[in-house]
Specification:
10 strands; 24% helix; Aminopeptidase
């Protein structure tokens, strides 16, 4: 399947989020706050959520809050009456954080999530002296000996989302950057990137992201890219390649084991 345009990419996102949030896809299109507590069906992202989960997502219209049944009354009283933008305000994040703290949980996000369909992808070539090579699933674990690229690689054999592809930038014999793709769901693969500090801002990052995005699209999966709300340079990098914002998300995560939910 070739994901040629942005509308097709956003349909994939809605389908996956509807599974994750136990709701109908239309919940992300209507101008309402929807609260759900149903079981997550197969087909969503492979994240190890806390048992007493609470997560919030919007694609720009409706806001969906998915939570453990024990939290429904609290969510209905405190979040459901709000406007969508107020749910993502700092004061609301503090309120939710206090609610989660008693269970040993903390609030992750807001994460900004972008998608790039084939029609929007821009090709960027690496700067002079930099070579980019692709690493497939059978060889990707060999990259784990290169530390310092935590946004690109999980460095874990037991990660809930497997590293499946990587684009590696080298300068001579030196590895200077990695873009890695993880199989976050059956339909969507997430791309993360790290470039060595001493060679940043010369075009290596966009060349890596462009190359790996193209390779993921060729597999028939929808690539997406995420970063925290304060990481402005990361978002700017994604947009130079052709990524556009698709959804925003908050989520509860285990304070002692945040790696279990690698959003």
């Amino acid at each position: 399947m070739i994901l040629r345009d942005r509308a097709a990419a956003l349909r994939i996102v809605r389908e996956v989020l509807a599974v994750d949030y136990a709701c109908d896809e239309r919940a992300f299109l209507d101008e309402h706050v929807v609260v759900t507590s149903g079981d997550i069906r197969p087909g969503g992202r492979h994240y190890a959520r806390p048992e007493r989960t609470l997560e919030v997502a919007t694609m720009g219209a409706g806001v969906v809050v998915h939570c453990h049944p024990d939290r429904v009354r609290w969510v209905a009283a405190h979040l459901a009456p709000m406007r969508g933008d107020a749910i993502f305000a700092a004061s609301t994040a503090a309120l939710v954080s206090r609610h989660l703290a008693d269970d040993g949980l903390e609030l992750g996000g807001p994460n900004l999530n972008y998608v790039c369909p084939e029609a929007d992808l821009r090709a960027w070539h690496p700067p002079m002296g930099i070579k980019i090579a692709m690493i497939g699933p059978s060889d990707i674990h060999a990259l784990y000996r290169h530390r310092g690229f935590p946004n690109a690689l999980a460095y874990r054999d037991d990660s809930p989302v497997a590293d499946v592809l990587a684009a590696v930038a080298t300068r001579g014999d030196e590895l200077v950057g990695i873009a890695g793709a993880s199989a976050d769901s059956n339909a969507m693969w997430q791309i993360g990137i790290d470039v060595s500090p001493r060679v940043r801002a010369v075009g290596i990052g966009r060349a890596l992201l462009s190359r790996l995005t193209d390779e993921v699209l060729k597999t028939g999966h929808q690539p997406f890219y995420a970063h925290g709300v304060s990481n402005v340079p990361s978002g700017a990098l994604a947009m130079t390649v052709g990524y556009r914002l698709a959804w925003v998300e908050l989520y509860a995560k285990d304070r002692m084991h945040p790696e279990r939910d690698p959003r």
